[in-house]
Amino acid sequence: MRRLNYLWRLLMTGVAFSLFSIGGLMITLLACPVIRLLPGNTDRRRQRTQWLIHKLFGVFVGFMCAVGIMRLHLKNAEALAEARGTLVLANHPTLIDVVVMISLMPRSDCVVKGALWNSPFLGGVVRAAGYISNAKSSEELVESCVDALQQGGALVIFPEGTRTQPGAPLRFLRGAAHIALGSEQPILPVVLTCNPPTLSKGKPWYDIPPRRFEYQLEVKSPLSVGDLIEPDLPGTLAVRRLTDALENHFALELAACGHPSH
Amino acid sequence: MTMDNIMAMSNEAIFGELKKILVESFETPEAQITLEANLYEDLDLDSIDAVDLAVKLQTLTGKRIKADDFKAVRTVADVVRAVRALLDS
Question: Which of A236, A237, A240, A243 is the mutation pick for testing B, counting most B CBs within 10 A?
């Protein structure tokens, strides 16, 4: 019975991965042209595309839960749905983090890899959604992120820059702090945990856990820069102190969830 | 430091000033600052820091640094050379 369950979850994980790629291609081919034909300016089109991605990611997460690959536990997730002009920061344990988060956010901005931005399959979608390509200089990238926030976007950033290396201490890059200091918008911390760990960095999709994974998303109380660092620091120091403060904040939150980050 | 002193600055003095900036503004551990140290790989600066560093060096020398000239800079020795060239120009 256990073996059967394992094989079922393996098969369904494969189906989920295929669905994702096929889904992306379908939106690029079918939905994007429709959205382009609908009346409204670029901004409206962006919002519609973001909403569509939100809905489809919801279907995708629903599928994974329904077939028994994962179980989703949400805490205070409404705060994500309502986030506007907010820098949403999350740790990054798995490949599906952004999918789960956006499935809860009707409006969201995020930074995508240059390779994805130009991809023939998904490039059309991420460009229409007005997502931000990381294929530019750091200064320009921070500027684009600050702009998105000041226009009322809910910008999702993983301060680690990539998925957490399992077993390694949490290590934040300074980009998130640059954006927080540049935009002066509130920070919404989201703590993600996945048990047993799966879809983590360096693991192939078929390396599935021995049982269904429990995925927990908890939205914490908003923070402001003023809560985390002393005022009036010179920029170069402020960004370092804020990075350390955010890293510590998340390390403590994760430890409180029973995930010591070594 | 007066302007004349700055113009006459030896490379050692430039290195000393640069060290001071790195320690005070970027919290770089002093022991790590050698001429061979790479700003990005060894001293943990990022490209936004490099812009801040260039601004501080402009203040020090009173001369404008061209962004393109500074982009090629990798090591501490490169920075000293760039400041030297700026002072001699």
Answer: A236
